[in-house]
Amino acid sequence: MISLAGRVAVVTGGSRGIGRAIARRLAAEGADCVLTYRQQGEEARAAAAEIEALGRRTLTLPLELSEPTEVAPAFERIGEAFGRVDILVASAAATAFRPMLEQKPHNVRRTLAISIESFVAAVQGAARLMAGPGRIIAISGIDSFQGMTGHGMLGAAKAGVESLVRTLALELGPRGITVNGVNPGFIETDSSRYYVEQGLGRDYAEATAGLRAATPVRRLGTVEDVASLVAYLASDAAGFLTGQTLVLDGGLTIVSPLSRLEEGGRGGAP
């Protein structure tokens, strides 16, 4: 059993998708939640209503992570409202999905500002409010270690976040703060559907059928899968786990090309 009763969680990008599912799960386990968002005020309020329906307190904060100087004042506001932070989940990310030769300087700066600079600022702000054992969890992505057209900048930023996870775990461990990453594989979200249909020009059902067949557990990931792992990492049960980035992909990345060629074999379809 996971219990987060009496704890305060901050989830960046908590208004939609994976971030919203994480906030909802943390609240279900007893945590009060702060949700930051960029523009989706209506969605943020709807997410907050879901949390309040679970009997938890919530706060929604507009936060432009491409401007890292806005992060510290946001955590001052959180401190005023709740007096503490126990869990920080860095879920927000954004980039211009273009080939590297078409990236503009401001796109490069914006991607790094959101995923690297603001992550560091959020850790600094949260750590100051962690009076006891704390949990910091960064949401990464498979583009951090696999090449994906149009994902060069975001992948580089996420790889940087995973490196920071290790250093932060080393530095914050003596204070009782663990730092881990979650690297989701293909998760069923609106963004994933958009990438398949608009970015790749593929039929979603047909394309994902191939993924299911190639994945050892024979299904796609859900936002609830990600939220469940984050809830565990946020709990007391994960107190001896730190400095790790866990790949959550149903086993897809462990399947070798040769196994995929085994028709009907355990490795899945090619």
Can you give a write-up of this model?
By secondary structure, the chain is an alpha/beta fold. It has 9 helices and 7 strands, in the order βαβαβαβαβαβαααβα. It has helices at 17-28, 41-53, 71-82, 105-128, 152-172, 190-199, 204-214, 223-234, 257-261, and strands at residues 8-12, 32-37, 58-62, 87-90, 134-139, 177-184, 245-248. Strands 3-2-1-4-5-6-7 form a 7-stranded parallel sheet, sandwiched between helices. Helix 5 links the parallel strand 5 (134-139) and strand 6 (177-184). Helix 1 (17-28) packs across helix 8 (223-234). It is globular. Mean pLDDT is 94; it is low at 265-270.
Q: Which terms would index this structure?
A:
single chain, 270 residues, alpha/beta, seven-stranded parallel β-sheet, globular
